[in-house]
Amino acid sequence: MDREWGSKPGSGGAASAQNEAIDRRERLRRLALETIDLAKDPYFMRNHLGSYECKLCLTLHNNEGNYLAHTQGKRHQTNLAKRAAREAKDAPAQPQPHKRKVSVRKTVKIGRPGYRVTKQFDGETKQRSLLFQIEYPEIEDNAKPRHRFMSSYEQRVQPFEKRYQYLLFAAEPYEIIAFKVPSTEIDKSTPKFFSHWDPDSKMFTLQLYFKVKPPETNKPQPPPTANGTGAPGVPSSSRPLPPPPQGPPPPPLQGMAPGAPMGNPPRAPPPIPGSVLPPHMMGRPPTMPPPQGFQGQQMQGQGLRPPPPPMG
Fold it and tell me: What are phi and psi of 75, to 5 degrees?
């Protein structure tokens, strides 16, 4: 017979222990390749000979499957447990953070409480204040309302506004209510900021004052500009302005003595209608108009015309 005793016909005989071990390692290798990434294994190393080594157990393996089968073996698992115990022993003991457990009460809310807000103004200190009166007629026994201030960036109900903050009031079984107030600094001195709970009338009162903003300091005046004018609204300096520069005097004309008066002679006044001219003015040609320009100057190329001789 060509088959071993105890095997089924056509099965090729019963597998030996060695064949069973080979088949088990092959199945483990295929399973490990599907679930384990060797690139993330800190103990997997490939040497210069092309084979693989386990840096933890210092073993040599011919292929990746052999190494994966080694990682599932008893030797590798024992060395992993020893290394983890040694690292835990050498690591310093760090204190565990204390986590405070807060139990959230689940109560049925009965609605919002009634409230009254009064705006006030102190004429002496020029401070504005708000007076809140919240009524809790159905508050729980031995309970007291609470309040707190919340920044605009803490809430998630309305868009963020830097100019405002929120004042919250809470008391079971009522809903939490909030008031939107300016984000000005609050004066929390004893006589101005106070809260009071009246258990008889079931009313919670809170008063707050806003601090007055300090006046703005006078800004330094800008220096005058180059042309001597300062900023608008700022008086200029009392120092007089320098006179404008003057050009050199014109040279004397040829044929005239130095220091002689220059310019045209004075003109006679225009005749009055109906009057008779004097004899020496009759038949006199009209005089030329004076040259345009400043006093003491004349047009280039035009000299002085002497007065005509008197007519006899």
Answer: -65, -50
Crossing angle of helices 17-35 and 64-71, rounded to 10°: 90
- 3 state DSSP class of 128: strand
Contacts of 173 (CB under 8 A, 6+ apart): 107, 108, 109, 110, 138, 139, 140
What is the rounded average pLDDT of the residues 94-99? 73
Classified as helix, coil or strand, 200 is: coil
Residue closest to 309 by CA, chosen among 288, 290, 275, 285? 285
Q: Are 94 and 129 in contact (CB under 8 A)?
A: no
Name which of 87-101, 195-209, 293-307 the model is least confident about: 293-307
Give me the residue label for tokens 């088949």: 23
What end-to-end distance do the CA atoms of the chain give, in Å? 183
Specify the DSSP class assigned to residue 225: -
Cα distance between residue 272 and residue 193, in whole Å:
95
Q: What is the reported pLDDT for 255?
A: 56
Predicted confidence at residue 116, as pLDDT, reads 94
Residues in contact with 41: Cβ distance below 8 Å, sequence separation at least 6, in sequence order? 71
Residue 53 CB contacts under 8 Å (≥ 6 apart), including other chains: 45, 46, 47, 59, 60, 61
103-151, pLDDT tens digit by residue? Answer: 777 888 889 999 999 999 988 889 999 999 999 999 998 889 999 999 9
